[in-house]
Design a protein that fits this description.
By secondary structure, the chain is α+β, with helices and mostly antiparallel strands. It has helices spanning 6-16, 22-33, 83-106, 123-136, 140-145, 151-157; strands spanning 39-40, 51-53, 58-63, 110-115. The protein contains six helices and four strands, in the order ααβββαβααα. The longest helix is centred in the middle third of the chain and has 24 residues, at 83-106. Bound molecules: zinc ion (ZN).
């Protein structure tokens, strides 16, 4: 175990984790493709965020619409059987999410929540969406100001 590099270990971890969903993989792929580096499931932070970008003091959660109750989303509708059970279970998730986001913000982290239904299975669409999110959160532009290669240059070389 100790012979593994940090990258190998986080890769192994990411393979084992059951919460490793396709939309989450697409978000990570898109970020990586754009030249962003990140850590996964950083345990020291509240809620073990799915993706952590220490350089930008930003965390990203990729939330399943059902498990985290995406408001006004058809993917979030409850199963008809056992509805009380699900209501309680998901209610607790939502409470926990709120608490974790509050704590992260108090620690000075920027929190981005991406819903699974927002991520298109098409990688190019996922990248465009991520790009928009990063610009909205002043991450993409701050990167350009620092003189790092802009996304479009990376793209044209790919
Ligand atoms: Zn949704």
């Amino acid at each position: 175990m100790d012979k593994l590099t940090k990258e190998q270990r986080s890769w192994n971890m990411s393979r084992i984790k059951s919460k490793d969903t396709l939309p989450e993989m697409l978000v990570r792929h898109a970020l990586w493709h754009m030249g962003y580096r990140y850590r996964l499931y950083y345990k020291k932070l509240p809620g073990k965020p799915d993706i952590v970008m220490p350089k930008y003091k930003t965390v990203i959660f990729v939330h399943g619409c059902f498990w985290h109750r995406h408001e006004n989303c058809k993917e979030a509708s409850r199963p008809k059987s056992n509805s009380e059970y699900w209501e309680n279970k998901i209610g607790r998730n939502v409470e926990r999410d709120k608490k974790n986001i509050d704590m992260l913000e108090q620690l000075g982290w920027k929190v981005i929540v991406i819903w699974e239904c927002q991520i298109d299975k098409n990688v190019d669409n996922a990248i465009s969406f991520l790009k928009k999110i990063l610009i909205e959160n002043n991450i993409l532009s701050s990167k350009l100001k620092n003189g790092t290669m802009p996304y479009d240059i990376l793209e044209s070389r790919a």
